[in-house]
Structure formats: structure tokens, C-alpha cells
Design a protein that fits this description.
This protein is an alpha+beta fold and 446 residues long. It contains 10 helices and 18 strands.
Length: 446
């Protein structure tokens, strides 16, 4: 939500309209007039505060007679600074020294192969300083200083493709502006008699003079005359129809005609295209929003965001992939354990098979040997290791009385020369032994 104050300077008074813009809607929140005396700034400040207006921005419409507005043609110079070119031309078109002028311009027409046509608008610096002092006293900051009748001419509704003359009547004078395709191409201020017939004839003469001074291309575009301000006398405008009243834009309650000038000024947008002439010095003129710079900054921020997001997205994806792998591993863990157990059993069977095959390779019969050992050794003996080759066997284990094993094996028909290969060691309740025996020869066989 933002508030903007429009001020229209008139004979002996200042019209004020405060406009509030909120969510795309515009609403008049205050409209009044104050005498243009020494306390005008304080009076405006007080009434704005009483109406609850929080605006600091102000737009001012000057009377047409206080400014110079003139259509000027300039040569087309590629790459030239148009504002500097206008500055060089000021002396030819102003009735006061260019050093005392505050000026701006609106481009009316430009194109390859033809001169650039502009509307030059200028005001004396002392008049401009009085306006700035008024705003300081009112607690306002200028955003636009323009011409009031130009703002009313742009406000007047009609066929956008045709032109019109907008006429604003006061008691003893009048102002008019010619609008073609949304641009003010000419404007004038002139006195008017107060008498009815003289007033009528004066209006007709000034309108004829205005039309005659227009270039042919603009004159053929003018389709009507729109009259605002005081009620006009009955008059004829050559062959143009006359429409009474300047309507406010749709959705905005129109104030009295006395404040319509201020409303038109408040509705101006300094940064819109085509640009409106703004009689503010460069140092305090509001700058248009730097869209190219903002776009570049936005693209840089987006690029930076993408650059920062890539590692984060990669990290998140890797974490999700890792979580999926861990879940699969958890589901496969029982099967892996069963496979490991089967592999261990296979390895044990392979070793046993290798042992049995080694027996067969040496010409030994393992089953008779194992049966003989089983029958010979006492029940309290435990065999933990067994090694068999062509010369005999070695076995180790535990027994209650290891010394009794030697006579038992010696008495066996399959073994002879039984002896311990290491000393017998005693444990808690049994003796650990390691012994060797050779095969007893029987007719050349083992």
C-alpha cells in the first residue's frame, strides 16, 4: 500500500488530491483546496494529517502559463546524447537564459531518415524553487513536476487511435492541450473574456488558431474537443464534436472539477513509457527501476542457488541410494549367513575328501585303520589329530592314562613300535599325549 499526493497550482489556490494505491486498486482518500498564501505548506500538511494520509511523495502540476512547452525538431545523429542536444537548442526557444532553466522533453516522433520531433518543456528556476519550498513546508518530497493541462489531456478517455483537444476553462482564462496517440503534441494558455458572446467567439478563435498551427499529420488525427473546468458557453469548434466533462478512470470516484486537475497529476507515472516530461533536476529525479541490472542479479542468484543446490542434491541422492543398499543388505543378511555356513560345510567336506583321497593315493585303507583305532583305544581317550602315511601314523589327543595307550596299540595287530613323540602333559582331569606308530608288516602288506 502506498499514498501519493497530487497538487495542481491555480490562480490564488492549490488543489490537492491524495491517492492510495493498494493491491492494484486506487482510491481517493482526500481532496481539498487551500489558498495560495504564505501558510499554504502548513495548511496542506495539516489537512493531510487530519485525513490520515501517510504519503511523502508528491506530484505537482504547474499552470500552463508558467512554463514553456514547444514542439522542436532535432537532426538525427546516431549515438548522440539527445538530452545534451536539447540543451544546446534551449537558447533558441526560451524567453529566459538557459542557465536559469529547468527543462525536460518528451519524444513525439523519431525514425530513420527523418528529424527527431520532441516536446520541450521548461520552467524558470526561481519558479521551480518556489514549488520545492512549498513541498518542504508541506512535508512532501517531489517525484514529478509537470504541466497540469498535460496530465488532464492524458487522463481524458476516448479513442486511443485518434487525437483530441482537451480544453480546461477558468473564469478569465483557459488552457488546452492537443493529444495524438497518447502524446501531448502541443499546448497553450490564453485569456478569455467573462462575457458570454465574447467568451464564445474567443474560444472559437483560439481553437481555430490551435488547429492551424498543428502539423498536417497531427491535425488530421484530431477527432473531438473535450471541455473540462467551468461550464463552457455554446460554441462551435469547426467541424469537430464537443464533449463536455473529463471523466476520471473507471473505479476511481471523481472529485469535483476543482480537484480533477490534481487527480490527473496524482495519476501520472513518471517512469512509464512514453516518458512524461519531469521538471526536476537530475540529482533529485526518481530513477526508473533498473530492470536489466535486476534481471542480471536475479540470474546470478539463480545460478548461485543452482550451484549450491547441486552438491546438496547429490548428497541427498547418495544418502538415499546408501539407505536402499543398506535395506537390501539387511534383507539378504540371513541368506548370506546360510550361504557362509554351507560354504564352511563344503570346505570341511572337501578337506575330509582330500584326506581320504590322500590315504588312497598312499595305498592306505582309511576305514580299516579308523575301525582298528576305534576298537583299540579305550572309551576315555579322545583323538584330536590324526596323520597317516606309508610309514605309519601319528595321533594326538587326551586320555585318563596316556601311558596305557602304548601297550594297547602294541597289542593291536596293525601297529608296532609305538612311542610318544612328545612328553605327556597333565591337564585338570586328563593327560594330553602325542604318539607315533608304524605299520606292522604282514607278508609284505600294510
Amino acid at each position: 500500500m502506498s499514498d501519493v499526493v497530487g497538487l495542481a497550482l491555480r490562480d490564488g489556490r492549490v488543489d490537492v488530491v491524495a491517492l492510495r494505491v493498494s493491491l492494484g486498486t486506487r482510491k481517493v482518500i482526500a481532496a481539498f483546496s487551500v489558498p495560495a498564501d504564505e501558510g499554504v505548506g502548513g495548511a496542506i500538511r495539516g489537512q493531510l494529517a487530519e485525513a490520515g494520509v501517510r504519503a511523502r511523495r508528491a506530484q505537482v502540476g504547474l499552470p500552463r502559463r508558467a512554463v514553456v512547452a514547444k514542439a522542436v525538431e532535432l537532426p538525427t545523429v546516431p549515438g548522440a546524447d539527445l538530452r545534451r542536444m536539447v540543451g544546446f537548442e534551449l537558447e533558441r526557444h526560451l524567453p529566459f537564459p538557459p542557465s536559469d532553466a529547468v527543462f525536460d522533453f518528451e519524444v513525439l516522433d523519431e525514425g530513420a531518415g527523418r528529424p527527431i520531433r520532441i516536446l520541450l518543456v521548461a520552467v524558470e528556476r526561481r519558479s521551480h524553487e518556489r514549488v520545492r519550498q512549498l513541498l518542504r513546508d508541506a512535508g512532501l518530497v517531489p517525484r514529478l513536476v509537470g504541466v497540469g493541462i498535460h496530465s488532464v489531456a492524458r487522463l481524458a478517455e476516448g479513442d486511443a487511435g485518434r487525437g483530441r483537444i482537451v480544453l480546461w476553462l477558468e473564469a478569465t482564462d483557459a488552457e488546452l492541450a492537443v493529444v495524438v496517440r497518447g502524446r501531448v503534441v502541443a499546448s497553450r494558455a490564453f485569456p478569455l473574456p467573462a462575457d458570454g458572446e465574447a467568451r464564445e467567439r474567443g474560444l472559437e478563435a483560439e481553437l481555430s488558431r490551435t488547429l492551424a498551427a498543428l502539423p498536417e499529420a497531427d491535425r488530421v488525427e484530431v477527432a473531438e474537443v473535450v471541455v473540462g473546468g467551468l461550464p463552457p458557453p455554446a460554441f462551435a469548434a469547426d467541424t469537430l464534436p464537443v464533449r463536455i466533462g473529463v471523466a476520471a478512470p473507471a473505479g476511481i470516484p471523481a472529485p469535483e472539477d476543482a480537484s480533477l486537475l490534481a487527480l490527473a497529476v496524482a495519476l501520472e507515472r513518471p517512469g512509464r513509457r512514453p516518458f512524461v516530461a519531469n521538471l526536476l533536476p537530475d540529482e533529485i529525479r526518481p530513477r526508473p527501476f533498473p530492470w536489466p541490472l535486476a534481471t542480471t542479479a536475479a540470474l546470478a542468484l539463480v545460478t548461485l542457488g543452482i550451484g549450491l543446490a547441486i552438491p546438496a542434491v547429490t548428497f541427498v541422492k547418495e544418502r538415499r541410494t546408501l539407505a536402499k543398499l543398506e535395506a537390501r543388505i539387511s534383507r539378504l543378511a540371513p541368506e548370506v549367513r546360510r550361504a557362509e555356513q554351507l560354504a564352511a560345510e563344503v570346505e570341511r567336506a572337501r578337506r575330509e575328501l582330500t584326506t581320504l583321497r590322500s590315504f588312497e593315493d598312499q595305498g592306505l585303507r582309511p576305514l580299516p585303520v579308523l575301525r582298528e583305532l576305534t576298537e583299540t583305544l579305550p572309551a576315555d581317550a579322545w583323538v584330536t589329530t590324526l596323520s597317516v602315511d606309508r610309514s605309519g601314523l601319528e595321533l594326538g589327543g587326551f586320555a585318563n592314562a596316556a601311558s596305557q595307550l602304548i601297550p594297547l596299540l602294541e597289542a593291536s595287530p596293525g601297529f608296532e613300535r609305538v612311542e610318544f613323540t612328545s612328553p605327556v602333559t597333565k591337564g585338570r582331569d586328563r593327560e594330553q599325549f602325542r604318539l607315533r606308530a608304524t605299520w606292522e608288516r604282514r607278508g609284505g602288506e600294510r
